[in-house]
Amino acid sequence: xxxxxxxxxxxxxxxxxxxxxxxxxxxxxxxxxxxxxxxxxxxxxxxxxxxxxxxxxxxxxxxxxxxxxxxxxxxxxxxxxxxxxxxxxxxxxxxxxxxxxxxxxxxxxxxxxxxxxxxxxxxxxxxxxxxxxxxxxxxxxxxxxxxxxxxxxxxxxxxxxxxxxxxxxxxxxxxxxxxxxxxxxxxxxxxxxxxxxxxxxxxxxxxxxxxxxxxxxxxxxxxxxxxxxxxxxxxxxxxxxxxxxxxxxxxxxxxxxxxxxxxxxxxxxxxxxxxxxxxxxxxxxxx
Length: 287
Prior knowledge:
- β3 (110-117) and β4 (120-127) form a beta hairpin.
- This protein has helices at residues 13-29, 37-44, 48-60, 77-86, 92-107, 150-157, 161-178, 184-197, 239-260; strands at 64-66, 73-75, 110-117, 120-127, 143-145, 200-202, 210-218, 224-233.
- The strands form 2 sheets. Strands 5-4-3-8-7-6 form a 6-stranded antiparallel β-sheet, sandwiched between helices.
- The protein is of the alpha+beta class.
- The radius of gyration is 19 Å and the shape is globular.
- The protein is 44% helix and 16% strand.
């Protein structure tokens, strides 16, 4: 978390920009529910006048907007435009849509695409299946600590050991407080199992009857770009069917990886620092 400040006198322009961008990122953590001013003050590490001033500046630029009734803050139209333009370079969601549609059509279960963001995973897309009983544990925009949920675990398992340890250390308090069945020691065991089997399994650790499997998607250099996952009720996730689902996911993952290889190369991708997970962003279920 950013260090709390009580005064902004003497801040340079660069510092103001950094703090505005951090605030913009924080708003995105709240997804479709939006963020209140008090939540942003509490979690952003800045005092109320400074937070309000930065919010107004971001609203003037179109990066944020405020609901006139709830007074909560959301990403704005300009943020959407910039994201759309960036997707031409970082277009994982665009090139994965066909595969998600294929997976849900063939399995009748719900499929997901997730990516890493600092020490968390974020669900980019949820593709509904047609099976009459569905799990609603994970929605687009939801995030949770890396290792919590099948797609999240698949991403974590594809990282280097030192990265995994740094992430688990950063998330330690949040995991112990809000995911008692998924402490760092359990996640380490799950990482080892994932690497051995080649896919991640969430055997109802978050919600008892909600199971999921996950498979990492890789950039050409081997780094994880994200993960596919499929969720279903436990009776549809027995070992024999897990094998079938993984085979389907492997086919689609290879298609996505081939498309990623044709994107504009991102030379010298920045290795982001490990930042502790923000409190108050727990999701009740994760697949």
